[in-house]
Amino acid sequence: MKVKIERYSGFCFGVENAIRLTEEALKSEEEIFCLGHIVHNEAEVKRLEDLGLKTINHDEFRTLRNSKVVIRAHGEPPETYAIARENNIEIIEATCPIVKKIHKKIRKHYEKTGTEVQNLIYGKKEHAEVVGLLGQTEGNSILISGLEDVIQINFNKPAEIFSQTTKSRGKYAEVINEIKKGYEKEGHDPEKMLEVNNTICGQVANREPGLKKFCSEHDVIVFVSGKNSSNGRMLYGVCSKINTAAYFISDISEIEESWFDHASTVGVCGATSTPRWLIKKVAGRIEMIPGKKK
Question: Is residue 34 a contact partner of residue 53, using CB atoms and an 8 Å limit?
Answer without folding.
Answer: yes
